[in-house]
Design a protein that fits this description.
Layout (H helix, E strand, L loop, with lengths): L33 H8 L5 H19 L6 H14 L12 H12 L3 H18 L6 H11 L2 H11 L6 H15 L7 H6 L1 H4 L3 H4 L17 H15 L2 H8 L2 H9 L6 H16 L6 H7 L2 H8 L16 H14 L25 H7 L19 H6 L9 H13 L2 H9 L11 H14 L20 H8 L6 H8 L4 H25 L7 H18 L3 H9 L6 H17 L1 H4 L7 H12 L6 H20 L16 H11 L7 H13 L13 H13 L1 H4 L2 H14 L1 H17 L12 H16 L2 H20 L4 H12 L8 H5 L23 E3 L2 H4 L5 E3 L1 H8 L11 H4 L5 H6 L2 H7 L6 H20 L5 H18 L7 H14 L7 H8 L13 H6 L8 H15 L3 H8 L7 H9 L6 H15 L4 H9 L1 H10 L4 H17 L2 H8 L6
Antiparallel strand pairs: 1-2
Amino acid sequence: MGKRFSYAPDGPGAPRKRQKVVHEAPTSEDIHASRQLQHLLSFSQDPVRARHGLQSFKLFLDELLSPESHDAERSRILMGYLEAAKPAEADENAVYLPEIMQTWSYAAQYNNDNIMSAVPVVLALLLKLLSKTLDTVPYGLGICRTLLQKRQQELVSRNLSADKGKAFIISPTLRMLKEAISFDGGAIARPMFRARMSMFKSLARNMGIVHIGDVAEDTKRPSARTNAILFFLLALKFLHPEAKKELLSQRDIVSALTRDVKQDPPYLVRELLEGLRSHVLLDDKLPREAKASLLNASTLTRISALYQYRLDTAAENEASIADLAHRFLVTACTNPACGVLRQDSGFYPREIDPNAAIPTVELDDLGLEAIVWMHKFKNEVPVRNYTLSNFLPNLRPWSSIKQSELITAIFKVAPELVASYFLNNKSFTFEPKLSATWIGYAAFIFNTVTLPLPEYFCRGPSFPELPPPTSIVLDNILPPPLNQKALSRSLANKSNMISFFATRILVVAIEKLEVAIKMHQDASHSNKTIWAEAARRLVDEFCQRSPGIKDMINAYRSIPEGDILHREAASRLLRLCYEVLPQAALMAKFDVSPFLEISLSRLSKQELDDPRDFALGLKELENLLAIAGYSPGMRWFAASEGLSLSPFTLLLKVCVDAPHGVALENIRQVLNFVAVEQQLVPAHDGHPGLLALLEALQATRESSTELVTPIWPFLDNCLTRCANAPVKYVEKLQEVAQEGSEAGDKSASEAVVSPLALAMLEQLPFVAKSGEQAALKAVGHFLPKFLGLSATAGESRALLKLIFSKMATHLADSKGKLAKTGVPKGLKFTHNPWPPASKTPAATVKKQTSSETGVSPKPVMDAEALESTLHMPDGLEADNSALVKWASKTVDELVDEGFLISLMALLASEHASIRKEALVNLLKAVARIKESEYEEKEQVWLLLSELAETAKESINDGPLPSPIASFACHALNILRDPISSLYPKVNNFLTRGPFWKLDKLPLVDEILSEEPGVGDTYYTQTNWLLGYLIDSLRTSHDLELFHKKRAKGPVFERILALAANPYMRLPLRSQVLRLLYRATTIEGGSTTLTTRFGIVNWLEARQAGCVDESEAAVYGGMKRRIWETCDQDRVRAWSRGGLRE
């Protein structure tokens, strides 16, 4: 290719490089008169002379604007010039400073950049100066109006659209416009906006002309971006709402506004955040859509980058950039008026109707499966707040407390975002690792879990017809990162901090679950069955996501003794499990006695000096006592090897030795409950229980601290013996009463005396024989007070006096003074008696009047409250969709998510076609399980095979008996957990034969008659048995199996005998009542219970022995229901009129 020929005038010899532009500094001179100033600023085509005059005027104005300047002469010179340059006629076309304007126009014609830059500089300084005094405002307004004339608009537009490299032209022009739009309180803001094609020309581009260089931007010479943003903010300040709306609708301007905000100088960022917050977010006249056009996800993300702003140099009393950004974002994201936050529907995702009408038949047959969207949102949740949903993933809550607070504030006002956020952000897991990142993330999740549930699960005035999706409710209670594996590892971690975080999160999660369950069980639901099923499913899925009870117990055991705060939290976690998730809690053996003894020992020895530690120790003790109340195997009166006193006595000692002002009501209630259960004190209404004993001990301690110490071993011995053999001391009481009757006291046979007093009488001779004078003296000081207070409590003074006369022979009473004095009189209680037992919300108790019955009133629960307390949903309710759904599930899902249980329950269906199809599908599932790698596949395969073999023979004749189907469903849950105490018994049963007898109830004899086999788990196994028996009782044929004569007696008879066990706790007694209630729902059930098992007398006996009024009301309500649902004519004939309403 040939060489190109140059056509330049100089030919090939011309220089090839661009000529270097040299900017010469302008000259200037001092100004001493207004005429001199007029001469300098007069129009001249000589650019050097024009620059000289403009530069002289600039320096003159700089002097006037200087804070130290108070030169009146200079001000007079300026006023003289302005008056001379004022137009003759003040009309709309009048031109102020015509010489300067003509110079600017001439420079634009000849592309003189220096003059094009110098004129806006001078005008900006002049407007700034004129705005300071009221007298000069008219001149400034005239100059501003001149700038709005067509020729000047063209000049402004040209300056603003200059090349990006000519920031020395653009920046002064923006500075001039900034002074003009804010002059006289924005007097010409509207006209300037009307001329926006010129005045706002290239504004978005100019916002992108940032300061370049290693040195920070000089505040005296701000960049084009700085001036453009300040001009934009002033426009927002002074413009009317419609103009602001149109200005904010310019996407390029809005985008450029925050594009480089992270590199902007601190003062500009402050102006930007404060300006946008004041003039956009908090402007009530500005419509929401205008604010929303500014606050898109990109803008919010860029502002959130200011949390890591590194150029901040905040003063001592000045808010930091991060604080300002946080305040801005909180306002923008949580205030509905700001346009970002949209009204959501709580836990009901977008595009679903929670009040959709679903036929009752479908709901009864399919349950939750009739709601097509119930299981649709496990992987993705559509939300209404899509802007916030796109913004949240850009925040880093684990690295900044403020970002964590921002997200939780958003979650609080838009709860629909919680599930969506964690489902879409799976990059960070909760795998325990002691680092600042993990601690920050754990704190964020804790704050999320503590957020309250939306009222009614939505924004409406009441609960919708249908429950919310279970997965969304669960994700709000226990977010997806908190899976079973991560939480179990966290609890077992060697770091106490990690374990403590996991414990606290689980505590608040279970508390939140309890609130959700109560909301599902609200009495206002129109379809209680669906809501109850949703509550059960919520509990089941929560248990699958949370760690097992054994992990929690092991975590509690591993906590150091000195970590009081951690131990209190862990004990509260276990207590909540027993209260909210009792079925899961009772699956593991937990002997609370050692921990209770350690806690009691620590408190009784007063090892905790700090009052706050003592209060935490009491909290831990209360939690352990609550657990002990739910644990049937609690040994209250058995001292361990390391302790000399039993837990019950140590608890008494804690109450007596506790500092003044410490709340002990809960502990006293536990003491009284145990004392009544163990027959240490009379179980009569109005008797204060152990209050007399506590008062006597307290009085003895107040008289002498050393005097009460020897009493504890004696008292512990008496309490233990009385608890182990209460009948023995009842008989002794009868002997004493007989002796009193012979002495002439006719009321002695009906007198009331605490059995503990008889135990003290029995053990006192051994104290006397031991020769310990200090102990004998202390007991002698204590016993009169105890017996006197017992008499004040309502016990028989005559019998107590007789008992004390026998005691006095063993005390140090050589002269017989004690015997003559007898039981003291006039002793009063200084403590209030403990409050009556709390009543459950569902227990609406009514009392019969004495005029109707002629006896003392007995509490009776009404029918509605009784149903809410004892009614249990049908555990074998048909779910026909299981015939199709199981085929697409893995073996793990079949076993763990209940699909196999639903399939087995269909064998008890009333429809033969469904039973046959269920059997075929069950055999297919058996084959798939046999070939799988499921860990317990052999046991599950054996269970299903035997069930199928049993059903083959009877499937054509009718439904499979409910006890067989119920046993199979409950046994499957046992086989899933090899550590269950029932695992050996279920496997032994399965190995007996290939099929089961249809007229027998599996494992009833093995559980009720045999040893538990695994530790002290008898009551745990009994609880499982009662649960499966309740599901077994559905039809009249099932009822026959329960009252059929057997070698060891009918099942009903054995269950009723089981409930008479004095050591059985309230939860198990309630299960027996639920079984009886289920029987009353079957035709002929109440009649059978009355005529064959004497259920009315059994209920009356149980009610008479109740201490808790609410439990007595349940027995009264059951008695009424038995009568209302039985064949009353037949019962009257059977009882010969003995039973009537």
